Amino acid sequence: MRVYNVKNIKYHDRLAEKKRRVFVLKTLLFIGLAIVFIGLIFYLVFFSSFFKISQVNVNGLDKVSKDEFNGQFNKRLNSKWIGLLKHQGNVAFFNSDAFRAEILAVFPEIKDISVKKEPPHTLNIDITERITTGIWCFASQNLGEFAELATGSSDYLTPGSSDPLTTSCKYFDEEGNVWGEAVRSVGFLVLVVDDLRQNAEEINTDLLSDIIFMSKRLKEIDVFTDKFTVPDEFIGDFSAFTSGGYELLFSTDSDMGGQLEVLKIFLAEKRDELGFNPQSIDLRINGRVYFK
Predict the structure, then answer these.
(1) DSSP class of residue 60?
(2) Which of 8, 48, 208, 277 has the highest count of CB atoms within 10 angstroms of its CB?
(3) Is 174 found in the same domain as 266?
(4) Can you tell me whether residue 126 is helix, strand or coil?
(5) Alpha helices of the chain — where are they, by DSSP H?
């Protein structure tokens, strides 16, 4: 039989109770400190000006309107967390990736954008805009037959109508990206493409590559183009209307460089010939030249 000392049992009960009180106090203290810390963070993010964005440096903005860009930036800055509290005005919490995605979606003329934070108050925004290659005009209605197509006029008419064909002209770069609204233009200083395909909304990048190649190489042999034209029923042919008043017919199914070499030889032979004033020169068949 074991004998217990009643005094020892009371002693152990008091010790356990003391330990529980210490644990509860420590827990409450920890919770209190956590609440204070969270409250401090909350204050710094939403109410304090300690990390408030007060200076924004934007570099590289040219084609895009500054007012439109600032409007998009302010939209991000004033966005609210769960629809209640603003937090993007804080340098530490500003979402650079989301802002970058928004800008690239809204402004196709911007190729890239980087945002660097410089605490406590500064954002440095560097913008790379796309380099304009030329103007691409899309047809926006049923084309039918066109008056003066052979002469290279920029005013195409629908059957029985006296109104010019409605077009939408946009700037484009060498990658085929389009943006903005451009005014129809002609002249060798700007690469202009009239795309007469019905309801075409995107640039064929392979065709664009051939047109850019031809435009550059034609200038090298002193042939300057007012514009290139893609026909409505495009099957690989396109044409260039030159400042000399004649049309050049090319085919993407034939070697582009070969067509250009044949043209160079042909023009060298004909330029000194009296009365040589062609309306069109057809280079679509390899190694051959047809003109009228």
Answers:
(1) S
(2) 208
(3) yes
(4) strand
(5) 6-46, 66-77, 96-106, 205-220, 256-270
